[in-house]
Amino acid sequence: MATAALFNIVRHCDTLLRTAEVNDWDRAHNGLQVENDDRVTRIAAAVDASLATVKLAIAAQADLLIVHHGLFWSDTVPWTGKRRELQRLLIENNLAIYSSHLPLDLHPKLGNNAQLAAALGFKQLKPFFFEKGAHIGFQATAKVSRDELVKRLARAAGVAPKLLPGGAAQCRRIGIVTGGAGAELKKAAAEGVDTFITGEGPHWTFALAEELGLNVLYGGHYATETFGVKALAGHLSRKFRLPWTFLDHPTGL
Fold first, then answer.
1. Range of 82's domain?
2. What pTM value is reported for the model?
3. Nearest Cα residue to 151 out of 180, 171, 126, 132
């Protein structure tokens, strides 16, 4: 059975993703969130760290779980009830957790945005959507019909997107920011795109998209953020010669 040292994997991820350099929201806590005994034999990847995905990782016999959304977005005390169960399962099953939020979003090869752009058939990407001191998304110049783009996104993400048809039927400048950037339509439009692809957004953005003349495609927060953890886990599998698996636990959001 192949084995790799956890901290060698962590060191590689931190360097590859520039974990210490990329600014993020305070509670993202990018990097190693839970350590184990420094031994990894199988990697699992999931969008979210939760009691459910920890149980899936244990069932898959993984000892490292790679996630996009980590454990610490909300208060983590007291450790009672389901929180105590989570802590117990992590320790008893020697399961480590590594989380990468914006560092994984913006990575030019393995990131959610780069991977989704590639899945949509876009090349020659430009930086897009400046946030937290960096461009976290990508912009593509391509002549594609709005209906065709909806079909491409459905194939890539595996779910039918929600379309806000505020712009022209022919798309030419397309911005991509996976996850929950729907409240930032004005920022996307200000950067010159006529079509904006993200995961989800509020109800009021329908009227705003019409006012801005902007096509918006909501591909699902979860669905648009499966790409990065899969790409990162696959990369680690090849580099450290370890098996990996994706744990699909969709939120429907």
1. 6-101
2. 0.96
3. 171
